[in-house]
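Workshop exercise sheet. Pairs work together: one partner reads the sequence aloud, the other fills in the structure field after running the prediction. Swap roles for the next sheet.
Pair: D.N. / O.F.
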Amino acid sequence: MVNMITEQEAEKIELEFMDAMPEWRNYSKEKAEGLYKAWNHLWALMERENNFSNKLGSSILDWQIGNWAGDLTMVLHNAGLYNEVIKINEQILQIKWSSNRDDFYENAKRDIADAYADLGDIDKCYQLYEKYLVSSLLLISLHHQAVHRVVVLPMEVARSMVVVRPQLHRSRIPQHRRLKMLVTR
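Structure field:
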């Protein structure tokens, strides 16, 4: 017999996320832990259903999973819970997104590497960025005000460069204040 997520289960998860969501940039450890607990309940449902996607068959949950994933990683990071950031982003990498949502995978990989840097493990951070860069052609996004240009370089050229990537944690803080440079080889 196939289990189905009940409306009651879906509503309970939604309320848990809503209750834990920080207001007015209150990125306290308590709020972060509340969101983390809600995510773990959602993940347990995904495990039970053996369905790691954003199509669980629940109109309440399906459209929110991506939003909750992004909000959770931002709040955990801002609360300094870097090990939890790593765990959640590893789970995000397991989710099959219904539409072409490569940005979830790319952001998760970057967030994992950045969390290791925040934990003080710069070598692990560099290793992960190297793995990320080697896994496909190097894609560098160059942002200049409102212009977005993409440059694709062959790996032999990319390996000889120093790549500077802005680390932007999805925060409501103005961009000029939240820009932190991470230099990798």
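Discussion prompt: The CA atoms of residues 48 and 74 lie 26 Å apart. What would you look at next?
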